[in-house]
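fwd from M.: "can u put these together and see what the complex looks like"

so here's what she sent:
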Amino acid sequence: MNDSIKGTMMSYRPDIKVLDATIRDGGLVNNFAFTDEFVRNLYQTNLRAGVDVMEIGYLADPELFDESKFGKWKFCHEDAIRSVLGDLVSPEMQLAVMADVGRANVARDLPDKQDSILDMVRIATYINTIPAAIEMIETCARKGYHTTVNIMAVSKAKESELEEALALLGQSSVEIIYLVDSYGSLYPLQIRDLAKRYLEAGEKYGKKIGIHAHNNQQLAFANTTECAMLGFSYLDATMAAMGRGAGNCAMELLLGFLKNPRYDIKPVLRFLQDDMQKLINDGVVWGYDIQYLLTGYLNQHPRTAIAFTNEKRQDYFTFFQELQENE
Amino acid sequence: MNDSIKGTMMSYRPDIKVLDATIRDGGLVNNFAFTDEFVRNLYQTNLRAGVDVMEIGYLADPELFDESKFGKWKFCHEDAIRSVLGDLVSPEMQLAVMADVGRANVARDLPDKQDSILDMVRIATYINTIPAAIEMIETCARKGYHTTVNIMAVSKAKESELEEALALLGQSSVEIIYLVDSYGSLYPLQIRDLAKRYLEAGEKYGKKIGIHAHNNQQLAFANTTECAMLGFSYLDATMAAMGRGAGNCAMELLLGFLKNPRYDIKPVLRFLQDDMQKLINDGVVWGYDIQYLLTGYLNQHPRTAIAFTNEKRQDYFTFFQELQENE
């Protein structure tokens, strides 16, 4: 059963990198309304904890989104990032932003790497917009950035579509291809099957593979550890699992699992008790709950569960009937 | 990798049985102070949901525990059970109690099966009290009950001890041997390795194997699904994961995973919104939290995390330092 396992519970793979997506995925919960102090504390926490990459938001197109309605981390203008993090930046940790296909103009809005504090651009795409994603990847790569591509909602894709997508991306300049369980619907058995497909493509085309999990069925951490054991190189996590809907793989769980002495859970515990607890006390709500279980189980987008949460409903039985009518 | 997997995501194994441990493990959270109405509603919910066995409490020795300090489900006197459930009992679902080695007198307190509403006795033992557990197993078997043995805290046992324990139990009258992750410390990779040892013993001695997981690292459901895929026959779960400390594998997650049309999540959703929500509103506290993650990660008993919870502490960093001093 374990013939594909890379490493044991005692060893570690130095090629594994941890990416903190708290501001980016967590920003979907609070419209990116993080204080500068929070983001600075998080930066220093990540640095001390050994986190390899910190994703600080989206590169959203200001022509499509009203800047007055969101915090600055949805747009990540170069000067805005520098004014908050400029004096802290260390070569020990990369800074990343996410650019959604159809919602970002990387050709216009992203400076050349030599003029930017950013190191990495992560292109988020659905499987039917791969050609547009590749155009964005090539633009970012030409500008000098590390690039990832995050194929969202892969639980909805046919195997044949995924094979074609991986082949197209394999021939692009992208460095890292992410398996994204957007709906938190995949069981470990399914994740392992998908992981094998991604790793085969990675080997064939010389790409590294990453995992971005959601916690609808309390499987984000388990699925992330499975991918790590099978040979994935990039593992996404967020503080206290903060992220859209049910949230992500919790950083505090992941750092406990990883055996590389580079990683240290203690600064994360301090950040949880001081900064994350404050967010929770302020009424920001995310994380596993029955409504997210149900959208995950039915392999549906979590938007209905987010609305259920916002309406403070608890009638799970009726909600489940509503979801089944959406099938 | 999947050569040992029994079944696919679409098929099901009819030999898989689901055991609801809400009253027994959840009773550790509220001193078994469930209302009769709650227990009756739970019985009917389990029956409608297709649950195979309902565990209704402990057979605690009244000479060791003060009956005025606990609800009746800690003692499970025959007349007490009958007065609450007698008119509901259906042959479709078995009733079980747990008897702890050293804390129960099954010879004296357990009636013969022909005089009892109970079907199954689960003997809970640490690995160093297996001979006493076997004596209890034989007593219960002679009285006519189905029996399980639950080897607790297996994450602390040496492989050689476990081999010996499984061999001894294999030669006893016990029908089902449980893998119990008492501290919620085992990762899926470790669970699979242990599962293989239990399954080998089960095959050799003709015993069925079960899993009882705890959710300290949000792995209870994942580990339960792994055991199910590998060939375990008995899967423990509780409503809303209610159980000591971080709780158990949630019934609502497990029934979503199982493909046998016998199981139905809908009655469970009703019970969650009506009865479990009431417990939560009344201030009963359990479930995954950072303090449980930390005891799980360090493979320690959750008692310190339970105290941390009861004291409403949130200083995770200091707590972690305290735990490391206990190592």
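replying to her w this: The first helix of chain B runs from residue 22 to 30.
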